[in-house]
Every structure is written in structure tokens, then in C-alpha cells.
Amino acid sequence: MKTYAYLHYINCVLPQQKRMSARVRGCAYTVIDGLNVFLRVLVASFLWFCSSDYVAADSHLLPDDVQIHGFLTQGVFHSSNNNVYGHSDDSVSPGLTEIGLNADYQPWRNLRFAAQGLYRRAGDVDKGTVWLDYALADLTLYEYDSGKIGLRGGRIKMPFGLYNETRDVAFTHPTILLPQGIYFDRSRSLMIASDGGAFYAEHRTEFGDFAFKFNVGLPRNDLDEIRSVVLASRHTQGSFQAEPIIATQLSYELNGGEFVFAVSYMDTEFDFIPAGSDKLRKSETRIQPLLFSAQYNGEKFTLTGEYEYRWNTFGNFAQYGGGKFITESWYIEGSYRILENVQATVRYDTLDMDISDRGGDGAIALGYPRHTAYAKDWMVGLRWDITPSWMLKADYHHVHGTAWLPQADNPVPDKTLQDWELYGLQLSFKF
Amino acid sequence: MGLQIAKLRHVKRAFSNTLVIFFIVAAFSSVVTATEVVVNKSVPSAKYSVGDIRAIFIMQKRVWPDNRQIKVYALPDSDPLHKEFVKSNLHMLPHQIRRIWDRMTYSGTGSAPIELDSEQEMIDKIANTPDSIGYLSITPNNENIRVFTLH
Q: Which of the two ends of chain A, N or C, has the fewest CB atoms closer than 10 A to its terminal CB?
């Protein structure tokens, strides 16, 4: 029961954006807003420039060892109850905008640089931010006839499951919403990328290709969110400090990706550091997800499944005391190519916040609706690749439960409903 | 009357003949009969396998035996020659290789082949770029381009 308070904040409330105090917000946001507008204009004009006739897809103006790519996505949503990406309940929210622009430069055989800027607006969870998605140097240490090993340093995307590294790139998955039980939109800021280093190894054999990644680094430091939300009292002076996250993945691909298998594991930890006047204690919170992934990519048919088992250990910084519980989520998804460029998808996705309390008794005891403890989502989707650069997707979801519903879009849990439907339409462009 | 029927038959026959010719032409123009993997003449001759070609085009194998970096060129996904090349030479499906390229391109873990607009551009690039590899529907009569032979 006690764990529930923590469980709720970590999954629902913690990644809400920027709940700074009004004073700090005043100064900081003026600067950030100015910067955001500037970067947005910069990104938009660059995208226009790159997609126009001045520069063809890979740019004839640039040397071959520099490549520029980008993408742009706009989604609209409507829901029967509850809000997703803004006010979608009995309305239409134009809530999900994503623009990315990246450059890749290989000055030498064994050294490569890559960076990507991203603009994202997602309902009330993320009201529009521009940031550096990744920026890294990639050094190949040793390359042999059937593989290589190397190091990456800088801001690096975290490998987790089939989609985490490209979760913002609509073209890399068949539906608008990724399975939310595993790819929580609300916790993306913690697992999207980290500043640090990574070791990687690839080995090709006649019976498949193996790849291993081991990343260590500090996650995107949204300490203000964590501090204001995690602590019961906003008057607390202490802060949360993320420890370096470990993200590792072993994958095996057979026949050029016809079959894909992967095991991913993450170890995330953050500490509460009390200030002098605080009554709360210094303590640690730890989240360790283990994820198994499998995919078959046939000519017409694609079958995908992922299973996550997540250990949560919450510190006793607050008056409630600490707690441990296990979260479980899995999905199974089938896609069929009706035409070469039209793909239909059906998926069942399920999430239980605490496997020892699947019914949500703990949520009730804490004054939350029972259905915040679980979510079962049946969805059908259609993806139409109009050209290699343009794509249109449509999603329909029937959801039982609200465990992954963004609290920023639904500030009063009691007003959320257990059974709800979601419709989405998304247009994407890439080059 | 009889004359009219004969005329009609004639028109019908002419129409069906045209149709047959149209279908034959359509069939031949939509099917690319062969795809040649080609390299710049600077690429060292060695014992390459089918697995090597695939590893090169999915950007895993990055250097030639002389340790020089491989420059990989490709045509757009919608190009019939590209589709034919992926199926016959790589023994993969176009959407499988696109999945691999997009994952690298948008996650910073690698770079996809450089995409060219046409086969003519491919000929020019391969002829003028040392260490380059690509594919064509015909063997070009160009002293700087060599067919990539497998052993």
C-alpha cells in the first residue's frame, strides 16, 4: 500500500515537465523561451532548406563524408474519455509534434561524429522543448573481417528493447503510440539518452549476427521535476540527484533481420539529498527493468513481442517509509502488409504496476482509482508509406485501465475513467 | 451490314493486338532482369562472399581488405532496381534493410548508404569515387567501373 504513493509518482507524476517555483520560472523561462523560439526557427528553416531543391536528399553541396537527415511528425488525437497529448477528451488535440535534424560526419576511417537536435511538443507533459538528442564521437577500436569493437562518448541514446533508441522517429515503428506499458511516454526523459560512454561489439557469423552494447552515463537531468513531484512537500529544500545509469543490450539477428532477438537491462538510481533544514532522510531509489524482445520480419507478415519485468526499490526519504514491488508489462503485435506500402497492425499490450496487487487494492487504499494500477490496451493501426519520404498512420485503441495515462494531461485522477477509447492520426516526413 | 461486321472484327483484332503488345511492353519494362554489383577500379580484388556484400550494404563491414573505408551508394527505396538488388543480391526484403538503415541514421549509431537519384548518377559516382560500391542494371562500358565478382 505504502509503495503505491511512490509507484504513482514515479510513473505518473515524476516526469511531468518543469514544475519550478514561480520565481525561478520567471527568470529561467524568459531565457529558455527565447532560446526555444530561436532554435525552432533555426530547425524549421534548416528543414525547409534541406527539403527544398537547393539540397537534394543527401545534399550535393556537402562532401560525401557528411550526411544530413531529418524528420517531422505531426499527430492529432481524439479520445472518448481521459486526455492524451493535450485536451483530447471529446475534442481533438493537435498534441504531438516532433522535429529532428541530424548530421553525421566521418573524417577518418575509424572516427565518426554524429549529433541530432530534437524539438518535441506532447500535450501538457511536454509543452515544447528543443534539446540535443544525441551528440557523440564514435571510435572503432578494432575492426576484423567479421566484426568490430568500439567506444562511443558524449550524449548517447540508451539501448532498451526494439524501439527505445528511435522512439521519437515515427518511421521506425508501425503504430503512432508505442506499446505504453514498456515505452512509457511519461518516463522517457529518464531513459532516452545519457551523457557518458558506451562500449559496443558486433560479430557476424554464418548463423546470425550478434551485437552487444554497454552504456554508462547520467540521464537527462530533470531534477526540478523529480524534486517537486516526488516529495510530498514542495517546501522541501533537498533535491534529487541521478546516479549514472547502466543500459546494456545483447541482440541477435538472423538473416539480415528476418528474426531479431534481444535482451536489455537497465539499472537506474537516484538519491535524495536533504538540505540542512529538511526532516527527510538521505536515501536511494532504484529501478531495474529487464526486457526480452523477439521479432519476425517476413515479406508480408511481421510478428513482434516484448516482455518486461521491472524491479522497483523506493527509498525511505519520505515519511511513508520505503518499499519494493515488481512491475510487469508485455505485448504481442502482428502486422500484415496488405500492399507493398500499406501495413495493418493489431496489438494487445498489458501493464500491471505491482504484480502482487494486480487488482489495484493499494491504489484504492491511497485514495486513487483502482484502475491506475493497470492498463490493458487493444489496438488496431494502419500505416501507409505514401512515398519513401511521406507516411500517414492511423491508430485506434480500446484501453481498460489508466496506469500509463499522463497525469499532466489528467491532473485529477478521480476524473479519469477506466474504459476509454483513443483515435490518432499522424503525418510524417523524413529525408 | 456484312461489311460493317467485318470492319468491327478488324477493329477488335487491332485493339486486342495493341493490348497484347502493351502488356508485353509493360511486363518487360517493370521487370529488371539482372542487377550487377559494381565497384570503382581502386577496390582490391579478393575473395568476397555473398555475406560480405550484405555486410557492406547493411553498413557492418566498413573497410576493404586494404584497410580503406568503403563508400556505399544506393538508389531510393521506390526504385525498381533497388528492390531487385535487395532481393536478388542481398537476399533480403526492402523493408528489412530500411529498418536497419533508419535505426542507425536516427540514433547516431551509424550512417546509411548515400542515396543517389538515378542509375546515371550511380555510374558517375562509382566511376569517380575511389573505394566505392553500388549496383546497376547493365554492365557499363567504363574503364573505372568493375563488376564485383564473388568467389
A: N
Which grid coordinates belong to A64?
Answer: 560525401
Q: pLDDT class for A57, splitting at 50, 70, 90?
A: very low
Average pLDDT, chain A: 82
| Closest residue by Cα to residue A399 from A364, A345, A348, A344 | A348
Residue A86 is part of which domain span?
Answer: 2-430
The confidence score (pLDDT) of residue B33 equals 54
- Taking residues A210-217, report their average pLDDT: 97
CA nearest to A107 within chain B? B69
Tell me the average pLDDT across A143-156.
94
* Min Cα–Cα distance to chain B from A389, Å: 10
Chain A residue closest in CA terms to B105: A69
> Do B50 and B116 sit in the same domain of this protein?
yes
- What is the four-CA torsion angle of A195, A112, A103, A266, rounded to 10 degrees? -30
Q: Does A258 touch chain B (CB under 8 A)?
A: yes
Between chains, do A67 and B112 touch, taking CB under 8 Å as contact? Answer: yes
Split into its structural domains, chain A has a count of 1
| Structural domain boundaries enclosing B17 | 1-31
Regarding whether B26 and B50 lie in a shared domain, the answer is no
The fraction of chain B above a pLDDT of 90, given in percent, is 66
Question: What percent of chain A clears pLDDT 70, i.e. is strictly above it?
Answer: 77
A53 touching B (Cβ < 8 Å): no
Q: Which of A106, A209, A258 sits opposite B96 (nearest CB)?
A: A258
Which range, of A5-9, A16-20, A128-132, A317-321, averages the lowest pLDDT? A16-20
SS3 A321: coil
Bridging pattern class, strands B36-40 and A419-430: unpaired
Domain count, chain B: 2
Cross-chain CB nearest to A202 (options B60, B111, B112): B60
Distance from CA of A256 to the nearest CA of B (A): 6
- Cβ-defined contact of A257 to B92 (cutoff 8 Å): yes
Nearest alpha-carbon partner for A99 in A137, A69, A56 = A69
CATH of the domain at B112: 3.40.190.10
Q: Are residues B10 and B41 in the same domain?
A: no
Chain A positions in Cβ-Cβ contact with residue B107 (cut-off 8 Å)? 134, 157, 165-166
Q: List the CATH number of the domain containing A147.
A: 2.40.160.10
Bridge partners, residue A397, by sequence: A379, A422
- In a shared domain, residues B23 and B57: no
Q: How many whole angstroms separate alpha carbon A110 and alpha carbon A112?
A: 7
**DSSP reduced 3-state for A144:** strand
